[in-house]
């Protein structure tokens, strides 16, 4: 009997769809231990943001074929662990967009007119018409950080309210911003100019604590901050201090670094000018019906052997073709992520070259997997195999697909990604060895032979005595353990590349020191 576990509150419409193909057990509020103890009985799992699907849970899920996230963010799912186990992860990229946008706007208006505090004061018997004098949004400047689906809708409504809208989004083209009648600004300028800042970007290693004490201090003392995106993007202690000390005029927060928000959180001590809601951005009847139906249909389809339309980690292909291409898709995505970090930002052209036996595979899934890897730094959970091509097109990435079956560099063929960007051209090549292991075989013009690992460091340098030793010693001094090291060069004492697989991430402060080593021309930390 096919069984599906629903471990967070899901609209009945979704339960009804699942019941067409499976026994559905609704068990919310499970402890991590309880979830690990029961997940082995289930073929499908449906969640929202409350359930933590850890590697331990996935390890225990012997029968699990699909995890359905009824919403956008899958940061509560160990997606790499699911992919390694061949468990499809799907989400609903658009089902709660309007709900989240409207909650951000509701918080902006509530902040401006002190609604919650005025309500509490009146309910307590007060009649205070002085303390709660507010401000208008009309003709004020809104700064949107992350001009994606939700950020774009917030911008549209804000403009209808008579606001001037600016945005910071390093991955959005000027044409798209112009279409939305939004000015693109660098982040520091946006925070300095805005009367309101609203965050609508994913939580990624690059956005962790993006809004810190220093950035908050650049805001106008009359400015207000709203976060309906993800916790962890704002340093919560810094925010509590900034509101308490009137560095900014107020803030409204819906999401938190760790949820539920701790009882002793510094945010709970701020009595005025701060509004807190318990992750309600998607909590409307309409959104919950949307996401429940969207994801339940995908779970049903996958359990019936059909492709999923919003697969986060595996393309919408039949499971049989998937099984055949899985290592090749993982290689393409890994090379894409690697290339995006070597290119350092907006890629304008991508060539995907299928060489040797690779040329016999369908190209589109590999192109899509490469694009997913390239865009994953920008889009986090929102990028998947279904929307990667569209998102790339919207970001002005021109894709070239080349099949070169004459190439004989590796028995199983190889895949080469080459990029053009304002910061130069780069290329990476990889192959899938007979044991199924992925290998990076060239970086730019240099031959290497590296197994991708979670933390890596790539350097371009002059081939000279001592440089390898210096880098090794420096990493050791900062407790960064080297798993493997490879040097690629064309001529002795010429230009060279070094590839290190690391057990630990490179702290930003260490990267600056690495750049200062004599002979180092470039250094790129990569997290896969
Ligand atoms: N509070 C809630 O209940 C909800 C929260 N969310 C969260 O809202 C966020 C946005 O969701 P969507 O608009 O659907 O995603 P989206 O993918 O459509 O838009 C995200 C945008 O952020 C941009 N971005 C990525 N890194 C950036 C950076 N470092 N600086 C500036 N911009 C950056 C991307 O280019 C993209 O345009 C997601 O993190 C999602 O999890 C979504 C729904 C409900
Ligand atoms: O869709 C998202 O990313 C959300 O944050 C919504 O979270 P929820 O489903 O309301 O727990």
Automatic annotation (TrEMBL):
Metabolic or biological pathway, per its Swiss-Prot or TrEMBL entry: Amino-acid biosynthesis; L-serine biosynthesis; L-serine from 3-phospho-D-glycerate: step 1/3
Keywords recorded for this protein, A-Z: Amino-acid biosynthesis, NAD, Oxidoreductase, Serine biosynthesis
Reaction equations catalysed: (R)-2-hydroxyglutarate + NAD(+) = 2-oxoglutarate + NADH + H(+); (2R)-3-phosphoglycerate + NAD(+) = 3-phosphooxypyruvate + NADH + H(+)
Enzyme class of the recorded protein, top EC level: oxidoreductase
Entries under CDD domains matching the protein: ACT_3PGDH-xct, PGDH_4
Enzyme Commission no: 1.1.1.95
GO molecular function: phosphoglycerate dehydrogenase activity
Domain (ACT) ranges: 456-528
Presence of the UniProt keyword Amino-acid biosynthesis in the record: yes
Matches recorded under Gene3D superfamilies: 3.30.70.260, D-3-phosphoglycerate dehydrogenase, domain 3, NAD(P)-binding Rossmann-like Domain
Xref: InterPro entries: ACT-like_dom_sf, ACT_dom, ASB_dom_sf, D-2-hydroxyacid_DH, D-isomer_2_OHA_DH_cat_dom, D-isomer_DH_CS, D-isomer_DH_NAD-bd, NAD(P)-bd_dom_sf
Protein family (similarity comment): Belongs to the D-isomer specific 2-hydroxyacid dehydrogenase family.
Function: Catalyzes the reversible oxidation of 3-phospho-D-glycerate to 3-phosphonooxypyruvate, the first step of the phosphorylated L-serine biosynthesis pathway. Also catalyzes the reversible oxidation of 2-hydroxyglutarate to 2-oxoglutarate.
UniProt-listed PANTHER family: D-ISOMER SPECIFIC 2-HYDROXYACID DEHYDROGENASE FAMILY PROTEIN (AFU_ORTHOLOGUE AFUA_6G10090) (PTHR42789)
Protein name: D-3-phosphoglycerate dehydrogenase
Organism: Cyanobium gracile UHCC 0281
């Amino acid at each position: 009997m096919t069984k599906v576990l629903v471990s967070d509150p899901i609209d009945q419409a979704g339960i009804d769809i699942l019941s067409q193909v499976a026994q559905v057990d609704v068990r919310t509020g499970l402890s991590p231990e309880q979830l690990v103890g029961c997940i082995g009985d289930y073929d499908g799992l449906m969640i929202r943001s409350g359930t933590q699907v850890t590697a331990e849970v996935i390890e225990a899920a012997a029968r699990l074929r699909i995890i359905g996230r009824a919403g956008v963010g899958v940061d509560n799912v160990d997606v790499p662990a699911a992919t390694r186990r061949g468990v499809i992860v799907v989400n609903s990229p658009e089902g709660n967009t309007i709900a989240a946008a409207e909650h951000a706007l509701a918080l902006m208006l509530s902040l401006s007119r002190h609604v919650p505090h005025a309500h509490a004061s009146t309910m307590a018997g007060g009649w205070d018409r002085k303390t709660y004098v507010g401000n208008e949004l009309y003709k004020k400047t809104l700064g949107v950080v992350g001009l994606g689906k939700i950020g774009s809708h917030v911008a549209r409504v804000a403009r209808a309210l008579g606001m001037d809208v600016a945005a910071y989004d390093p991955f959005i083209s000027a044409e798209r911003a112009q279409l939305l009648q939004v000015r693109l600004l660098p982040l520091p300028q946006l925070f300095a100019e805005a009367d309101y800042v609203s965050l609508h970007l994913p939580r990624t290693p690059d956005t962790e604590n993006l809004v810190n004490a220093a950035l908050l201090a650049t805001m106008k003392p009359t400015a207000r901050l709203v976060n309906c995106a993800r916790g962890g993007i704002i340093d919560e202690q810094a925010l509590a201090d900034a509101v308490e000390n009137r560095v900014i005029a107020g803030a409204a927060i819906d999401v938190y670094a760790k949820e539920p928000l701790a009882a002793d959180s510094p945010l709970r001590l701020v009595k005025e000018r701060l509004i807190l809601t318990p992750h309600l951005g998607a909590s409307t009847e309409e959104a919950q019906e949307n996401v429940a139906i969207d994801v339940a249909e995908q779970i049903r389809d996958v359990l019936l052997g059909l492709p999923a339309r919003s697969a986060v980690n595996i393309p919408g292909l039949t499971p049989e073709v998937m099984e055949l291409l899985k290592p090749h898709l993982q290689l393409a995505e890994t090379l894409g992520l690697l290339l995006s970090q070597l290119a350092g930002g907006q890629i304008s052209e991508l060539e995907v070259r299928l060489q040797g036996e690779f040329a016999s595979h369908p190209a589109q899934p590999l192109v899509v997997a490469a694009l997913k890897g390239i865009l994953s730094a920008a889009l986090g959970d929102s990028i998947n195999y279904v929307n990667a091509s569209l998102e790339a097109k919207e970001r002005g990435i021109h894709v070239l697909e080349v099949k070169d079956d004459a190439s004989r560099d590796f028995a199983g063929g190889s895949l080469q990604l080459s990029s053009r960007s304002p910061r130069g051209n780069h290329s990476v090549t990889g192959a899938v060895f007979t044991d199924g292991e992925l290998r990076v075989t060239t970086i730019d013009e240099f031959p290497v032979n590296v197994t991708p690992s979670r933390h890596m460091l790539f350097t371009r340098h002059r081939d000279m005595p001592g440089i390898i030793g210096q880098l090794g010693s420096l990493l050791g001094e900062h407790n960064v353990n080297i798993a493997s090291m490879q040097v690629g060069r064309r001529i002795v004492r010429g230009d060279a590349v070094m590839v290190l697989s690391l057990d630990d991430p490179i702290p930003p402060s260490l990267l600056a020191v690495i750049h200062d080593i004599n002979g180092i021309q470039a250094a790129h930390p990569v997290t896969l």
